[in-house]
Amino acid sequence: MAKSNAIAALIAVALCISSLLISAQAGHDFLFVEGRVYCDPCRVEFHTPLSEPLQGVNVRLDCRSRENGTLTYTEDGVTDPSGLYVLPVEGDHEEDICEIKLLSSPRADCNEQFSSTDMARILITKNVGVAENTRYANAIGFKSKVALPACDKVLTDMGFLPLPRED
């Protein structure tokens, strides 16, 4: 009898602890956006083996209402030595259009924004079937003022035609 009471008490304690953990997780209403910023030394606006991470780039997350375009959330961040940024995002933004934008590059030799895209769009909601709290944005970057001479070989090795010469 005493043994069954002890087992019942142990089960009751386990249920209480698990319900506390579940309620603590429910109160945790943060997601994180993670991405990388790089310097494109070949001026092709995509990552190559010569691309370098950019430290100290100022990035901004803007979320806007799908209905009227009003700003609903914003968060700024800075990249680390590996070009990585991690932004905490409070709340769920399922009904918003959220974009990571580059604000400035600390490198004078690599501060020209891409002409094809200057942002990475990202879905920030828990209602997408992803269990973890991190959302990963596509890498974005700046391009250098002049393409490196080594870019021709790298691009050829990647299956692209050599770059036209800027004379």
TrEMBL record:
Residues 1-26 form the signal peptide. It comes from the Eukaryota. Keywords: Disulfide bond, Signal. One of its GO terms (cellular component) is extracellular space. InterPro entries: Allergen_Ole_e_I_CS, Pollen_Ole_e1_allergen. Belongs to the Ole e I family. PANTHER family: POLLEN PROTEIN OLE E I-LIKE PROTEIN, PROTEIN DOWNSTREAM OF FLC-RELATED. This is Uncharacterized protein. It comes from Turnera subulata.
